[in-house]
Amino acid sequence: MKKTKQIKSFPQGGVHPPDFKLTDQKQIENMPLPEKVAIHISQHIGKPANPIVKVGDKVKTGQLIAKGDGFISTNYHASITGTVQKIEDVLDQTGYKNKAVIIKREGTTDDWIPEVDLTPAIIKDITYSSEEIRSKIYEAGIIGLGGAGFPSHVKLSVPDGKKIEFLLINGVECEPYLTSDYRLMLEKIEQLIVGIQIILKALDINRAIIGIEANKMDAILKLKEGAKDIPQIDVVALRVQYPQGGERQLVKALINREIPPPPKGLPIDAGCAVFNVGTVYAIYEAIQKNKPLIERIVTLTGQSLKNPSNFLVRIGTPIKDVIDQAGGLPDDSGKILSGGPMMGKALAKIEIPLAKTIGGLVIIPESQATRNEVLECIRCGKCVSVCPLGLEPYLIMALSQKGAFDRAEQEKILNCCECACCSYICPSNRPLLDYIRLGKTVVNQIKRTRDTK
Question: How far apart are CA 119 and CA 128, in angstroms?
Fold first, then answer.
């Protein structure tokens, strides 16, 4: 067995909030089929897809229902068997309405498209070329499942003048409460190893590093055992430090390289490609099983929830259905977060459909959902000390409050990765990240206007 390495982690900032991993021992459960799904056609970075079905059409599970529009776009597929009821604007997790294909289920089971291999056999032989792998990933509608939603085929298309040397696999899952990636690493080891080999072949490189925080030693040891005969794959234990799973922090920790600052800096500029373990598993299923991305693992958790769980949920399922499967919404619920408590955002309604980018839902009790009194900044510098990007959050917040957006841009507001370390550590309970997010939105609008002149 390969020796597990312990490395220092990223060198600057970060915090260590309590884990609250209430579901780390809960195996992945299959959610019952929903009665209805609403599948948004713009769950990814890039141009929305174009619906290719119409109201009244009968669709099978896995059938293409919306076609990607261009290179930075992707496909969407029916996640249940049924009839297209509507194609209309539906509220999504961002709080805005966007176009969705609404399908009402027919029957009690799936009628899959015939191409999908539903057998449990794990296929290890990779028979496709690099170009075929990229094409199949595009056709399957795979995007980054770590939250960003970047189309995966784009990451695998290396432009002229760029070179990728390392494939980095993000198995960190450093957000409190969330355990969907952890359970995946325990329960789908062989599929993940094959998925990594598929990506290596698509990139035509021979070095992959899986980064996992050291508090998940069982996952580290299992993946090392699974990769023991594959010299191209290494597993590295990382220090438990949030936001260890951020791309910039992960790249620095694993290969000691820097991603150039926003807005242009990407992992490819540091000679690497970064994939979340959930995306790796989806790629395995697409290439070896011809299965499009129609479902994902979701952690539903909260301290008052009757049955916190990890569920395999069809895309487009109403979040209310997922909550009901875990025992229903607790009486003391104050807020439901899409994502973890550090970077997650509150949902407007529980009827919002599950998106490809939602890997966790955290129900916060009312007693914890109310902000503490905001006090004056005491210039303690704690927000500066924990910022992993070396920014001055107290200053950027003040500039956003005052509308000094040109100065905020000069102070590198767009470099903020929105990890919320500053808000977490602030003894004055100041809403640092809220104002920084507001400022980023305005600065980006100003930049777009300036660039079009």
Answer: 20
